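Budget justification aside, the reviewers requested a transparent look at the raw inputs and outputs of the sequence design task funded under Objective 1. We therefore reproduce one unedited record. The lines immediately below are the structure tokens for a 461-residue chain.
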């Protein structure tokens, strides 16, 4: 019989929240174990944020090479793409960050148990390690299990061996014609990156627009951007069947009878939680209807002494939110009251140019019955955008109708993520929009456009 080992804290899953909590608590002198199936450092550095942005960067440079003449540069011939080198560079970046994480793990002093784990008793996790099974329990158990790409139950789709973003990052041969199922954030990033690398692209979206959470003007602008890149967009279309095999010859048939053929198919149809087959029912951990772990504002589950963090807990699917979940967990250990209620979540979609948003959209404000003033401005009038030759996009801001609070900000344009952070800081500090309108912002910078934007806010009531 395997003896159960006791720890102060057991973290099940080594994503951003889990690994950060483990290092923090182990460095503070607690006995900590992390159970991880094998993805050192979590999905962000292995298969998500970091490798996808490495691919996007290569694609951006390929695209920029087609426009050197506008910058007064000449070239002897077209840029030659080495897709195997693109994949190798991505792998090198990942390997370097994995090594950094492993070194940090060892320095903190927690014990890393590599292997598949599952609950075998309400508070006991059995881990199948290379050296044999281990059983661990803890005074506090934190679940940071993550999610995986969803594969919808479309006839023939699984049999076609489709790409997800994970497999797409490993491609050493550029797809000739890539069919992308799903027009959300991952679908948009992957579609444009592979288009810039040279693939023909078709994006098939079940809804009426890309980026379903965004305002119609944002979706239309992003859609126009992708169409100008030569991407074919198909809306209001559900896939009825997939045939063939991704990597050679694949066909997608829609419910209306239309068909699209390609060499590869990529599924970007959302994420599903990693909660199956690990004994959460044995632990007494309740799930939502969608299979995520049900938690309260302190990330406490239905089981005594067990908390959940990150995507698996239904938190917004961003690494920076997972990091904030760590802060919630750390506060709870210290007896604090920090929780998830009312937190402000920014995000960036790394298309080219970027799209970034924080706070309310117009759609959300109207749905909540919140009156607002709108300011909107094209990027074309920002001097820095002109000098960079990056004039596409716009900024827009929502300001409360009866006071000067900034309710939300969205931007499609060069350095959108960095500019958004400026507005977020103002919102966090409770500054009125006039603080940005009247600030002395360095010229010529992209952030200088904020003064121009907020000067367009209509008078209040």
């Amino acid at each position: 019989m395997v003896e159960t080992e006791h720890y102060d804290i057991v973290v099940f899953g080594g994503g951003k929240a889990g690994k950060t909590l483990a290092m923090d608590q182990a460095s503070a002198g607690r006995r900590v174990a992390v159970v991880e199936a094998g993805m050192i450092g979590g999905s962000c550095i292995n298969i998500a944020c970091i490798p996808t942005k490495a691919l996007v960067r290569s694609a951006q440079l390929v695209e920029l090479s087609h426009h050197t003449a506008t910058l007064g540069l000449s070239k002897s011939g077209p840029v030659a793409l080495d897709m195997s080198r693109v994949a190798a560079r991505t792998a090198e970046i990942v390997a370097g960050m994995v090594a950094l994480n492993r070194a940090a793990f060892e320095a903190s002093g927690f014990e890393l148990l590599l292997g598949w784990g599952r609950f075998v008793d309400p508070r006991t996790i059995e881990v199948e390690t290379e050296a044999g099974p281990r059983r661990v329990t803890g005074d506090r158990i934190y679940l940071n299990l993550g999610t995986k790409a969803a594969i919808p139950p479309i006839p023939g789709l699984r049999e076609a061996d489709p790409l997800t973003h994970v497999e797409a990052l490993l491609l050493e041969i550029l797809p000739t014609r890539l069919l992308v199922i799903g027009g959300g954030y991952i679908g948009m990033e992957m579609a444009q990156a592979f288009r810039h690398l040279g693939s023909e692209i078709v994006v098939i979206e079940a809804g009426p627009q890309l980026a379903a959470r965004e305002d119609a003007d944002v979706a239309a602008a992003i859609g126009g951007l992708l169409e100008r890149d030569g991407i074919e967009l198909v809306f209001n279309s559900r896939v009825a069947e997939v045939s063939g095999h991704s990597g050679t010859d694949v066909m997608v048939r829609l419910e209306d009878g239309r068909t699209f053929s390609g060499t590869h198919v990529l599924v970007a149809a959302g994420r599903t939680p990693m909660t199956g087959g690990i004994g959460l029912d044995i632990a007494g951990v309740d799930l939502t209807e969608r299979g995520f772990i049900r938690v309260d504002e302190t990330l406490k589950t239905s089981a005594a002494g067990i908390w959940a963090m990150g995507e698996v807990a239904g938190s917004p699917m961003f690494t920076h939110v997972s990091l904030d979940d760590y802060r919630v967990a750390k506060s709870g250990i210290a007896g604090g009251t920090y929780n998830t209620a009312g937190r402000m979540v920014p995000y960036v979609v790394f298309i080219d140019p970027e799209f970034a948003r924080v706070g309310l959209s117009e759609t959300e404000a109207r749905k909540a019955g919140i009156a607002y003033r709108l300011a909107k401005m094209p990027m074309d009038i920002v001097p820095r955008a002109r000098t960079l030759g990056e004039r596409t996009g716009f900024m827009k801001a929502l300001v409360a109708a009866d006071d000067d609070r900034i309710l939300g900000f969205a931007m499609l344009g060069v350095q959108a993520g960095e500019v958004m952070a400026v507005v977020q800081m103002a919102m966090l500090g409770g500054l009125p929009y006039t603080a940005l309108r009247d600030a002395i912002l360095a010229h010529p910078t992209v952030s200088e456009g904020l003064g121009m934007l907020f000067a367009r806010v209509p008078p209040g009531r």
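Residues 4-148+272-333 form a domain with the FAD/NAD(P)-binding domain fold (CATH 3.50.50.60). The CA atoms of residues 55 and 316 lie 23 Å apart. Computational costs for records of this kind are itemized in the attached budget.
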